[in-house]
């Protein structure tokens, strides 16, 4: 049986721990997380996290200290996260796809003494132990593969009584490391205020958009990695709403389709690349999607042609989300009613700011520019991170004295307040003095029916300084020439924006959040140059 989310006190809670405690009292037997045959109810989540809190205290973990997790998605991650938060400690999940030196850097940077691991990651931890002298204990979630300490035994040695530590809205709660596509990754510190919906707004809780409202019986599929804001943020959002998350260890389209059918999934967050993979699955057109209410998507642009296909096959509402790790996730959203199959100018946008979020577009000097003029997107709200961990210079560069965070994304606001993303500022191409934004070129190329995927980069050009190159993945069994791609593009965008050359490749390099790693595509062309502009 569901309950009225307006009675959870989210708008007055001092931490997300308090909200979960209220769910445990109001609906103790409702499932919070489902993982295969394992179900963790809200009562179980509350009791288990209390045990974790007492166990961490016994280990000497103090408020403000970091604990870490290395592994694929697991419901015990949220239990451990909640337990750490109850004593003022901060969960720091590590990207399990990273190489050993990168894992060692993050564990050393966050100074974690306790590391939780998932099945299959004991060997990785063993590789880096000599480089991470601060790590005192490794605790395995899965008894079949752990490094010395079994999570259940460790947890269950302690009381399930509530913890007395007092938590404040501005206390650190979560530390997520940016993808590190340029330089060392930075730890973005998120607080209880930034995580809790509407915690930073004055007065009564502002009205939610329809797709945000909790509905009795909601079931969400958690398929994005928990080391990313889309994974942890998605799990927290569902948990705070008092609903059930079906947890996948990692994104698998076959398993996702099975779960959509067997668990009556109503909500899913996916990156566009994952939507594309799902639609290309042989079973996609056979599955009953009638229970599916919303697919929320973000992290990278989605071409109109792919959106049309998704709307036709899945038949649910679509919500585009814009945000980043540093904003605790979504700050701007495009509502389902703005998604129309025939396309519209608004569908090229990412929508309008959520309540309590301010957006402005600034030039290189930080001055606000006029509507419809491209510049860097800046945002201010309670959702912004507090800082980069142990990196005051990077923090000062990202957040000004008035609390405005510069996103590093290029875009503009139209006259109706809709935000349009052109691309990352650093990915802009300057050819013959003209600014060219890759996303616009990519949309044009992707519209070709034989193109499966595309990324656009700038490469050195003796005449123009930089020239546009398209890296194209063709659909299985299809063939295209460079000339055909260029000719097709000219039908959609200005000639100076069209690719001057085309590379046909097997697959685009992407990070776990689905973003294209243009740096990897550019690297061969800029080799030997002391800067990546020409």
What does this structure look like?
The chain has 534 residues and is α/β, with parallel strands linked by helices. The protein contains 15 helices and 26 strands. The chain has a nine-stranded mixed β-sheet with strand order 2-1-11-10-12-13-14-15-16, sandwiched between helices. A five-stranded parallel β-sheet has the order 4-3-5-6-7, sandwiched between helices. α1 crosses α2 (42-58), α2 packs across α3 and α4 (100-110) crosses α5. The chain is globular.
The helix count comes to 15
Structural class: alpha/beta
Sketch the major β-sheet.
9 strands, mixed
Distance between the termini: 62 Å
Q: How many beta-strand elements?
A: 26
Model regions low in confidence, pLDDT < 50 over at least 5 residues:
1-9
Output the radius of gyration.
23 Å
Short structural description:
This protein is an alpha/beta fold and 534 residues long.
